[in-house]
Write a structure and sequence with these properties.
The complex is a heterodimer of chains A (257) and B (533). Chain A is of the alpha+beta class and 257 residues long. Chain A folds into 3 domains: 90 residues, Cytochrome Bc1 Complex, Chain D, domain 2; 67 residues, Cytochrome Bc1 Complex, Chain D, domain 2 (Orthogonal Bundle); 50 residues, SH3 type barrels (Roll), CATH 2.30.30.100. Chain A contains 9 helices and 9 strands. A 5-stranded antiparallel sheet of chain A has the order 8-7-6-5-9, with no helix packed on it. In chain A, helix 2 packs across helix 5 and helix 6 crosses helix 9. Chain B is mostly beta strands and 533 residues long. Chain B has one domain: Methanol Dehydrogenase, Chain A, CATH 2.140.10. In chain B, 5% of the residues lie in helices and 38% in strands. Chain B is globular.
Chain lengths: 257, 533
């Protein structure tokens, strides 16, 4: 009597995937998805995938649809996978689902949270729809693109993950005068900033003393909010799922007159 | 009588061929004596990329400006190195396009477009032509070698190097013309191919020889691959080699083994991946090989330019081949024997504590990618890469662009599907660490850095050296630059408006020196304003 390799026989009954398939699905996940969803799928810039709840539908077809087509208005792109690859990937995702307790909806009162948002001057840096400043990241569709855990971390420890588009830069002029701002663009010879008053600040590197790339976020940490305010603010931010072009006028043709 | 007639006809045919011959093999051997021209991908067979032109020099380069622009209208990375032959410029574009231009003003003389069979994608880049006689030779994204009539751009012959197999095999490099043969390499180690170097008869397009860069089981080197892993062993030969006409030896860098970042399925040294191979150009027979990174799992291929230099090594004239490898070491080998002479790191690296006396790396404990990710320097792109280096015989320095970056490497067992990437892992930039680029001047006899010029981002632009005391280079943000070859001081820069992914060349037409560089969809030619000359 000879043994057959276990890997070939050990099927996950529900999905018809072998251990090797799942291992390869894990590889596909790590190579393509882990950058946003975390190495173990527990979330990062993108939502957690281990709660068993998927925002855009939970059937295999729903999940494949999101992977193939992406999610408009978020940083979730579309992926051009072969059938076998996407099957292995979803098979692996199914092994993750349920590995964490089902997350409850975010508690808190979004309407109260909006008051916390306004009281703390968040709109002096952030924009929701056409309201607020463009100094910091736009939040119009924040709830659809970031996990609650990620948003909470961004409030309490903003330096944990700084987006490339919001790198803080301080330019020291030859006379020692310092100008800080968000980096809009930079190359070998020049740097372009947006200051907190939303003005462009433009420098040639050979005309200044130093260009400093800040390692900390330009956003202060909001770790002195009361527990209730924090929870309400989080509930408000998670509820933001607006259309990124909501504030723009779209003029339809009125036909030939 | 009949016999004499046949000889006469043969004589006439030969004369006709000679008349039509633009660029003989003799001219290619002596390409460095034609300072006004640029006759091969590297400018000559040794790849020094230095020209004795000094009309543009350290004193007047500040006045350099765009003289003409040729717009291809093609999207994708424009990576060609133009050939310039007696006032005519020949360039290849993306998607199987190619053009002949008036090198004085960029006016088009002809255009060629490769015909793709239905269903083939045509998105691959191309790095340029080879010329021999009155013919031009290029490869296509679907792995064909094509011969064109230099006068008209008309197709003469076309030979498929390998079955296309859904994009598994591709070709991007500029061919190398030697004697009556056209030598080419193949791309696709990220797709589970078995690599090779081919030579085709320039006249007929028939394959003259093939050197498999991955030996089969039972062949010499075949025991460096576990089980049947050689069958998808990678070993692309994706960048043009160099040639020593006196030693009659061809030097070619071989790419990474496949899968790139997963080594468990291919235990062993994995010859001739990540190696330099020295071949007989007449037969394709291996003369010697040197493996820089045995059993690589970082994608650190050895495609980088194998530059040929004749220098005084430890007081004795010696024929050398040098390479700034992707693994962050600068190597000097004896090019007659393949003997390892020196290997020194040229930037931060965390994977090797050194090289032994045969040049084999001694690994640190943190040398290899892991399932959960490990930070390793240099990053996946290197180190060195295909950015063309140059050597200036007046300063005795080697100039090259390199990536100064560390990355997190992840390794995992890949799924093989024909025509799909077969990486076995991924690399990501290390959090909070921004990589940058350097253009470095290095003493090839010691491996010591003379100066560095820092780019904001890692740059894919090669270098060009001239007797004007200048090093031309460029950056990822689109600036073409000129540096003082002795000090590294920036003397001129110009924002071309698109990412640069090639190397500048220089040439002379009608007494005027030009510097040419592809940028975006355009070929730009720079010159001094007329009154300055």
């Amino acid at each position: 009597m000879r043994y057959l390799p276990m890997a070939a026989l050990l099927l996950y009954p529900a999905w018809g995937q072998t251990e090797l398939d799942v291992a390869q699905g894990k590889g596909i996940f790590r190579n393509n998805c882990a950058f946003c969803h975390g190495l173990t799928g527990s979330g990062g810039r993108g939502p957690s995938l281990i709660s068993g709840r998927f925002l855009h539908g939970s059937t295999d077809e729903d999940v494949k649809n999101v992977i193939r087509n992406g999610v408009p208005g978020t940083t979730m792109p579309s992926f051009d996978f072969e059938t076998a690859e996407i099957d292995h990937l979803v098979g692996y995702l199914r092994t993750l689902a349920g590995s964490a307790p089902k997350s409850a909806p975010v508690p808190g009162d979004p309407a109260q949270g909006r008051q916390v948002y306004l009281r703390n001057g968040c709109s002096s840096c952030h924009r929701i729809g056409m309201e607020g400043s463009v100094f910091g990241p736009e939040l119009t569709r924040l709830g659809a693109s970031r996990s609650p855990d990620y948003i909470r971390e961004s409030l309490l420890n903003p330096s944990a993950d700084i987006l490339d588009d919001y790198q803080g830069v301080t330019v020291v002029a030859r006379d020692g005068k310092r100008t800080g701002g968000v980096r809009i663009n930079e190359d070998t010879f020049s740097v372009q900033l947006r200051d907190v008053s939303q003005n462009f600040r433009i420098f040639q590197k050979d005309e200044v003393r130093e260009v400093i790339h800040e390692t900390k976020s330009l956003m202060p940490a909001y770790n002195s909010l009361s527990q209730e305010d924090l929870q309400n603010l989080l509930a408000y931010l998670v509820s933001l799922r607006g259309d990124v072009n909501a504030g723009a006028h779209v003029n339809k043709p009125e036909g030939v007159r | 009588m009949r016999r004499r007639a046949r000889i006469a006809i043969a004589g006439l045919a030969l004369a006709a061929t000679m008349c039509g011959q633009q660029v003989s093999y003799e001219r290619l051997v002596n390409a460095l004596k034609e300072q006004q021209n640029w006759l091969t991908y590297w400018g000559d067979y040794s790849a020094v990329r230095h020209r004795g032109l000094n009309q543009i020099n350290t004193g007047n380069v500040k006045d350099l400006r765009v003289d003409w622009i040729f717009q291809t209208g093609q999207t994708g990375a424009f990576e060609t190195t133009p050939l310039v032959v007696d006032g005519i410029m020949y360039i290849t574009g993306t998607d199987g396009y190619a053009y002949a231009l008036d090198a004085r003003n960029g006016r088009k003389l002809w255009m060629y477009k490769h015909t793709f069979p239905q269903g083939r994608k045509a998105t691959a880049v191309n790095r340029g032509f080879a010329i021999l006689g009155d013919r031009l030779f290029m490869v296509t994204p679907d792995a064909n070698v094509v011969a064109l009539e230099a006068k008209t751009g008309k197709l003469i012959w076309q030979t498929e190097m390998a079955a296309y197999n859904r994009g598994q095999y591709t070709a991007t490099l500029a061919p190398l013309a030697i004697k009556n043969k056209i030598v080419v390499g193949i791309s696709g180690a990220e797709y589970g191919i078995r690599g090779f170097i081919d030579a085709y008869d320039a006249e007929t397009g028939k394959r003259a020889w093939r050197f498999w860069s991955i030996p089969a089981k039972g062949e010499p080197g075949g025991d460096s691959w576990a089980a049947d892993s050689w069958e998808r062993g990678g070993g692309s030969t994706w960048l043009t080699g160099t040639f020593d006409p006196v030693l009659n030896t061809l030097y070619w860098g071989v790419g990474n083994p496949g899968p790139d970042l997963y080594g468990e399925s291919r235990l062993g040294d994995n010859l001739y991946s990540c190696s330099l191979v020295a071949l007989d150009p007449d037969t394709g027979t291996l003369k010697w090989h040197f493996q820089f990174t045995p059993h690589d799992i970082h994608d650190w291929d050895a495609a980088e330019t194998p530059m040929l230099l004749d220098l005084n090594w430890r007081g004795k004239p010696r024929k050398l081949v040098v390479q700034a490898n992707r693994n962050a070491f600068f190597y000097v080998l004896d090019r007659e024997t393949g003997e390892f002479l020196m290997g020194k790191p040229f930037e931060r690296q965390t994977w090797a504590s050194g090289l032994d006396d045969k040049g084999r790396p001694i690994l640190t404990k943190d040398a290899l990618p892991t399932e959960d990710g490990l930070r390793i320097c240099p990053g996946l792109g290197g180190g060195g890469n295909w950015m063309a280096p140059s050597y200036n015989p007046e300063t005795n320095l080697f100039y090259f662009a390199l990536f100064e970056q560390c990355e997190i490497y992840y390794s995992n067992p890949p799924l093989y599907i024909q025509g799909r990437p077969y990486w076995g892992g991924v690399s990501r930039s290390a959090p909070g660490e921004e990589g940058w680029g350097l253009l470095k001047a290095l003493d090839p006899l010691t491996g010591e850095t003379k100066w560095d010029f820092r780019f904001f981002r890692p740059s894919w632009v090669g270098t060009l050296s001239t007797s004007g005391g200048l090093i031309f280079g460029g950056d990822e943000d689109g600036s073409l630059i000129a540096l003082d070859a002795r000090t590294g001081k920036n003397l001129w820069h110009f924002n071309t408006g698109a990412r640069l992914v090639a190397a500048p060349i220089t040439y002379l037409v009608n007494g005027r020196q030009y510097v040419a560089m592809p940028s975006g969809a355009a070929l730009l030619a720079f010159a001094l304003p007329e009154p300055d000359r």
